[in-house]
Amino acid sequence: xxxxxxxxxxxxxxxxxxxxxRSPRYDDVYHSSSGAFxxxxxxxxxxxxxxxxxxxxxRYTVCETGFGLGCNFLALWRAWRCDPRRCARLHVISFELxxxxxxxxxxxxxxxxxxPTRALGDALLAAWPPLLPGLHRLEFESGAVTxxxxxxxxxxxxxxxxxxxxxxxxxxxxxxKNPEMWAPDLFGQLVRMANRxxxxxxxxxxxxxxxxxRDAGFQVAKAPGFGRKREMxxxxxxxxxxxxxxxxxxxAGRVLVIGGGFAGAGVAHCLALRGIETVVIxxxxxxxxxxxxxxxxxxxxxxxxxRDDDRGARLARAGMRQASLRWAGLPPVARxxxxxxxxxxGAESDAARHRATLGVLGFPREWVRWVERDExxxxxxxxxxxxxxxLPEGRWxxxxxxxxxxxxxxxxVCLPATVGRLVAVEGGWSARDENGGEIAxxxxxxxxxAGRAAALLRPLSWAERAPxxxxxxxxxxxxxxxxxxxxxxxxxxIVSARGRYWLPPVDGVGVAGGTYAPSGMAxxxxxxxxxxAARLATLLCTDVDAVMGRLAVPAGWAGRRAVASGRLPxxxxxxxxxxxxxxxxxxxxxxxxxxxxGEIVAAALAGEPVPLERDLLRAVAPG
Length: 623
Ligand SMILES: Cc1cc2nc3c(=O)[nH]c(=O)nc-3n(C[C@H](O)[C@H](O)[C@H](O)COP(=O)(O)OP(=O)(O)OC[C@H]3O[C@@H](n4cnc5c(N)ncnc54)[C@H](O)[C@@H]3O)c2cc1C
Ligand SMILES: C[S@@+](CC[C@H](N)C(=O)[O-])C[C@H]1O[C@@H](n2cnc3c(N)ncnc32)[C@H](O)[C@@H]1O
What we know:
- The chain is of the alpha/beta class.
- It folds into 3 domains: about 15-235, Vaccinia Virus protein VP39 (Rossmann fold, 3-Layer(aba) Sandwich); about 255-295 and about 400-470 and about 570-620, 3-Layer(bba) Sandwich (FAD/NAD(P)-binding domain), CATH 3.50.50.60; about 475-565, D-Amino Acid Oxidase, Chain A, domain 2 (2-Layer Sandwich), CATH 3.30.9.10.
- Helix content is about 30%, strand content about 25%.
- It has 18 helices and 31 strands.
- It is globular and about 80 Å long.
- The model has no long low-confidence stretch (mean pLDDT about 95).
- Bound molecules: flavin-adenine dinucleotide and S-adenosylmethionine.
- S-adenosylmethionine binds near residues 64, 67, 71, 96 and 178.
């Protein structure tokens, strides 16, 4: 998120004499001694005139500066549930520098909960993310209530959030002990996010805080405080400031998606989940909705780790989070299988480097850990030559049923056709066939046709605004299939080393990959099988002929990867071209980017907080 990497430090609360949670780090209490939920109702909901202000609204967005135990969030959610005139969707964004571990959250939160709030606390706990830096998106009430939880310093995170906010809950520890949470630049960022008429409330009545709010652009007033506090602060954004009310570019229609692979499916599915119709166009649909991946037995989705937690690693984490969230409810045959991934060290020096990286990152052990050779063998279920990095979040899945499930969602129409030209028309985009006939038109179009996106963009005047689309390269390659058995052991997890990988078997056949041919055809070949078998033989500590002897029928799958600059995907609006988006350049990680890109496009079109940091949005932008 900019600046040197700093590992997260979890909350270390203690119970004060009355049993209420207290932070020794800040020497302050998490909530008023008169009650967390009373304070939430009076200060944060009452101070922002909620629930009244969300009534009649489609969506309402609240941003909180300190999540703590989530009492304010639960109080807000409860009020939303109980209000028959509630907004259709409630989005909450909250920041937390010292998140509670799941067990501490349960220990400190549950004694505060009673009645129906207890069930909400259970749901929060069940969705509680691992303590990893960055934005986490949690969903409740079938997606009608979202919580975008940022783990890290509020000042840095607020700069990273792309959202339009209606109400702010300012809830740090006391400004004397926790000045960061009341800093003018933080308030400046809140104003950047604010909608017209946005309000803010806090229990704090320090004159410095009121002054900083005023300087940032709020009109500030005092109001009666809660419990033993005589006063609190309420504020309203000055009328000249704030975003205009969100108007959907889709009022009159649907979204055109060009391309029926992982990219098109991710976008169509995320839009359909929000009730936005899509028309997806691809000639492969003549052979069915999953035809883009026909014959691809299994594919993998694994996190990345780098010593400085760079953009690629953060993006991959975000992608995996979204895919896990979005695809968890799919039919079992399409659902990712959480099996874990084991990256074997190549040599002793490699092992030392990996161990040092894990030490620097300080990620939770249940998310990533170093395992020595014996444990690696146990985890893999086969003999391996060295220890490695074990990532329990690694997943494999069947690509063809996945695509069929994503495209099978109500509201997604699949048209078998080739788009010859994309034409800007009044109010949107028209997809034309090779003869100029219209296939479909819509206010919004998404180029999800991988390396071929450039050909559709080139004739348009906006092409130069999207250099990352225009400069994509295609790399062909194959995977090979081997029957597991003697000398070709089945893996229990995804086992990989130096770019080669071996997936857990599907019906007795394991997938090994892959080859890279920058100027080659997408075709399965004997040469490709030999290349893969040679690498798999090293991984399995056996010989090439033994592996080749287990080649399955069919023996593999071939395809193309569209690779964009920086090896990062291209996801975002094409600057200057109203309603034109790109979701392409997925390289070797189509599964990782599929749901993430879908969520980015869908959140922007639906006026929701975007579940990805702004620096990462810039890194993947087409321009
Ligand atoms: C051998 C191999 C193994 C791989 N293994 C994995 C893996 O394990 N995990 C993983 O995450 N990724 C893997 N990948 C990468 C993954 O396959 C790609 O990232 C993914 O396919 C990209 O999806 P896409 O939808 O962007 O592009 P594509 O799959 O290329 O789909 C683009 C679609 O657009 C259509 N199209 C093109 N032009 C037009 C047009 N003018 N009109 C209409 N439609 C058009 C095409 O017909 C095509 O169906 C692998 C790739 C290869 C080659
Ligand atoms: C008063 S408590 C918040 C209570 C919370 N709103 C609730 O409902 O339980 C303040 C929280 O701010 C967090 N915090 C302190 N400094 C922070 C910072 N710089 N960035 C983000 N969070 C911070 C603390 O760890 C603490 O959890």
